Amino acid sequence: MTTSSESTQAAAQAVECTLVEGVNLALARALQDDPTVVILGEDVGIDGGVFRATQSLIGRFDESRVRDTPLSEALIGGLPIGLAAMGLRPVAEIQFMGFIYPVIDQLVNHASRMRTRTRGRLSCPLVIRAPYGGGVHAPEHHSESMEAMFTHIPGIRVVIPSSPAKAYGLLLAAIRDPDPVVFLEPKRIYRAVRETVVDDGRALALDHCFVTREGSDVTLIGWGAALSEVMDAAETLATDGVEAEVIDVATLKLLDFETIAASVEKTGRCVIVHEAPVSGGFGAEIAARLAGAGLVNLLAPIERVAGWDTIMPLPRLEDRYMPSAGRVVAAARRVMEYS
Amino acid sequence: MTIVARFEIELTRYLDADGAALGELPAFASNRETLVELYRWMVLARTFDQKAIALQRTGRLGTYASSLGQEGVSVGLAHAMRPEDVLLPSFREHGAQLLRGVTPKELLQYWGGDERGSNFAVPRQDFPVCIPVGSHAPHAAGAALAFKLRGEPRAAVAVFGDGATSKGDVYEAMNVAGAWQLPIVFVATNNQWAISVPRNAQTAAATLAQKAIGAGLEGRQVDGNDVIAVRQVIGEALDKARSGGSATLIEALTYRLADHTTADDASRYRDDDEVAKHWKQEPVARLRSHLTTAHSWSKAEEEALIEACAAQVEQATDAYLAEPPEPPEAMFDHLYAELPSALAAQRDAALAETPE
């Protein structure tokens, strides 16, 4: 593996960047800092990925480490297992979540259990990245939110960033983690906002929710792109004098339930928001955990605002599917009025 | 019309069904010691197999996949490998695993339902057996890419059955092996049956070896019941792989003399006559016959070998049966590198339970 052109340490630099640029920054940092990191996927090389997440990595790093794979998703799921078991740190991109399903076979049957079934002799420190979610008027199969399929797999982590800085810090953490991580990138907000990211190689914790707004009246819980609607809803509610606390779950698996429970214990009211279909969505897990926690201060039924239990519609009906800020506000008002 | 491509598939065989040399043998096969070594591993594999089935029948082992009749492929391929190469076995390669250093006790542990059986002391980097058919082929591509990136002269050997060649995973792995010139030997152990589905119902392709052609790889057939041929052909493919010459698919022709597993009854779907016919081709008798005629292998040597293998397997069985199960925290303690705090309460709850 060639590292000669990559050996100079980049100084910590503050960069104004978007979420997808935060991903790119983290990938570059990981390639720079760790010679065992290998990037692979469809069109990740000269094209820089269809969303440009791997832009310019070729050129800065040896092309043996930034590899265009054949159009071959079972391979993109399985090949990193061999790499990781032999001591490398692969970061594989699935171009859209709609094409990730062959990877689930590899995650369930191999990556998640390699450490368990060999009692630690072999392990799979790998990352599968994929853009997910709706709202960009993409073609069929490009807009689903299937994160709950992954949260059901023991032995892996599921991480979803909601901002450029979180994308940077969480992806670095995912790459350095000794176990498999599914890193789902909300493509609707890939370029929605810019924020300052300090490229200092500092990773965020992989088992901590973020309280992104403090409030004492109701807890709004979300992740990924839906967090935008949640924050908008919180501002609307504030004009009514309702102060919402907002939690960005971010690390769905393994879940920081303590932060969530502490907030709901404080507010007594809770709305969970996600784009994925409501039934069996990850919101169900959070709701069940809250219901089982025996919170003495739970003042209203837990509400979920989510996608309908329908096939994700094509773009012309997409807006009717996506959980809007209005829906979140309405649900929050219902739980506020409950007595 | 212009013909833009043609292909041929070569079959290699050195010994006929009676163990007589069909022509000049490879150099290693003139060495009595080497042949006895190959023979000893095949006999050990078969002895192990018989014991495993007996243990399963008496409720002391889980469902077990017999390798009866396929010892030539398993032993031949493992004998050709170097310790630093990596084996990615299917669930029927006990002979290869034994030769690579996995102990009979560890194999019994795995088939007896204990994960420690895949935490073998040797070879540390070999993969555990793959149960979902063919899904390990992409792992071989990853392992081989790791070797290539680090400039290590090592190869990955992925072994799967005839049924696996119908799966996309196997094709995807072969395809990338060709595109990236990866050091892999794919071994399709064609034992003619994928549980109840015969080879001819699996694919219209005349050979499984030719499936390599579409991926830009060399495909070869070998008589899998001729361990000398397997040793030679896999050795050539490994040399090619380690020296940067890319991957090969080798179809090893053999026959599954046993049921698919101890949970199967092959008499439901195949004739005894067919099985009887294949008993005349099987690899252990073939090499024994060759050793007897060409290397004066004696009755005394044979008896001593059988006794030694039986003793080794008995000893392993005793050790396996004496081993208590792991404590329940093992379910949690190997799930992640470190126990996540999110799982601490479940771990405590599991430990607090009294077994019913």
Question: How does this model look, in words?
Answer:
The complex is a heterodimer of chains A (339) and B (356). Chain A has 12 helices and 14 strands. Chain A has 339 residues and is α/β, with parallel strands linked by helices. Chain A folds into 2 domains: 14-198, Rossmann fold (3-Layer(aba) Sandwich), CATH 3.40.50; 210-337, 3-Layer(aba) Sandwich (Rossmann fold). In chain A, strand 2 (37-41), helix 2 (57-60) and strand 3 form a beta-alpha-beta unit. Chain B has helices at 32-57, 71-80, 94-100, 104-111, 137-150, 168-179, 199-202, 227-242, 272-279, 283-295, 299-322, 330-333, 341-352; strands at residues 10-12, 86-88, 156-161, 184-190, 193-194, 197-198, 218-223, 248-253. In chain B, a hairpin with a 2-residue loop joins strand 5 (193-194) and strand 6 (197-198). In chain B, helix 1 crosses helix 2, helix 1 runs antiparallel to helix 10 (283-295) and helix 2 (71-80) runs parallel beside helix 3 (94-100). The longest helix of chain B has 26 residues, at 32-57. In chain B, 49% of the residues are buried. The interface between A and B is large, with 46 and 46 residues.
